[in-house]
Amino acid sequence: MAQTNPKLAQIDPVWQRICNEAEDAIRNEPLIGGFVHTSVLHHKSLEHALAYRISMKLASSEMSDQMLREIADLAYAADPYLAEAARADIVAIYDRDPASHRFLQPLLFFKGFQAVQAYRIGNSLWKQGRKDLAYYVQMRISEIFGVDIHPGATIGKGLMIDHAHSIVIGETAVVGDNVSMLHSVTLGGTGKEEEDRHPKIGDGVLIGAGAKILGNITVGHCSRIAAGSVVLEDVAPMKTVAGVPAKVVGEAGCSQPSRTMDQLLRTHG
């Protein structure tokens, strides 16, 4: 069995668990030993492992992995929130995604998690005024992961994006804490306006697959957006909306829709 470092487990239980799971993975499948070692066990912290993983995924002939890793390392060193959010995202994925059985999986295999962590690096660059470099990171995220998040968007921690194919989040969008969304979600604008033009998603919201939320509107906390819906107007907190255009069809059904991931619409006769 993997050896737990009591001091590390107390200081950083998420990273300790990832290291334990990495050692177990190598024992169970020695053929991936080199990959798991270089991605996890070679590093002294989750921040360093994330910087390595992001740099390896986004590297190209235009910008080397060494350069991208230096950019990521500096971002993690300058802003502790980035790693705090990454830990919250890992726990959220483990708790809400039935396909996730280990903390190790998002770091190694889940493109939604990897894309969001890369976005967080780009957002850090954006806030520093290094906008061209942030755009470059956005471009590579879109090319590699099929996820297009503008570096100017504001995204809270505890985010779970399941499957993460064809996600689009615009520049002035705001996503709260503990939000869950499925593939093909768009948080977009409605035209060519240049100011505040994208949705504001409250904490604890569940957004179903293929939902389009458009314009500078507010989706209240702990609400549910049904799959395939087109939302063009504000949504009150703790409501369920569905349809094209979306209308209120009931209450949210529970206090934490993003955690339960219950997407069924129920009618009561």
TrEMBL record:
<dbReference type="InterPro" id="IPR010493">
    <property type="entry name" value="Ser_AcTrfase_N"/>
</dbReference>
<dbReference type="Pfam" id="PF00132">
    <property type="entry name" value="Hexapep"/>
</dbReference>
<comment type="similarity">
    <text>Belongs to the transferase hexapeptide repeat family.</text>
</comment>
<protein>
    <recommendedName>
        <fullName>Serine acetyltransferase</fullName>
        <ecNumber>2.3.1.30</ecNumber>
    </recommendedName>
</protein>
<dbReference type="InterPro" id="IPR042122">
    <property type="entry name" value="Ser_AcTrfase_N_sf"/>
</dbReference>
<dbReference type="GO" id="GO:0009001">
    <property type="term" value="F:serine O-acetyltransferase activity"/>
</dbReference>
<dbReference type="InterPro" id="IPR005881">
    <property type="entry name" value="Ser_O-AcTrfase"/>
</dbReference>
<keyword id="KW-0028">Amino-acid biosynthesis</keyword>
<comment type="pathway">
    <text>Amino-acid biosynthesis; L-cysteine biosynthesis; L-cysteine from L-serine: step 1/2.</text>
</comment>
<dbReference type="GO" id="GO:0005737">
    <property type="term" value="C:cytoplasm"/>
</dbReference>
<keyword id="KW-0677">Repeat</keyword>
<dbReference type="InterPro" id="IPR001451">
    <property type="entry name" value="Hexapep"/>
</dbReference>
<dbReference type="InterPro" id="IPR045304">
    <property type="entry name" value="LbH_SAT"/>
</dbReference>
<dbReference type="InterPro" id="IPR018357">
    <property type="entry name" value="Hexapep_transf_CS"/>
</dbReference>
<keyword id="KW-0012">Acyltransferase</keyword>
<keyword id="KW-0808">Transferase</keyword>
<dbReference type="Pfam" id="PF06426">
    <property type="entry name" value="SATase_N"/>
</dbReference>
<feature type="domain" description="Serine acetyltransferase N-terminal">
    <location>
        <begin position="14"/>
        <end position="118"/>
    </location>
</feature>
<dbReference type="InterPro" id="IPR053376">
    <property type="entry name" value="Serine_acetyltransferase"/>
</dbReference>
<dbReference type="InterPro" id="IPR011004">
    <property type="entry name" value="Trimer_LpxA-like_sf"/>
</dbReference>
<dbReference type="GO" id="GO:0006535">
    <property type="term" value="P:cysteine biosynthetic process from serine"/>
</dbReference>
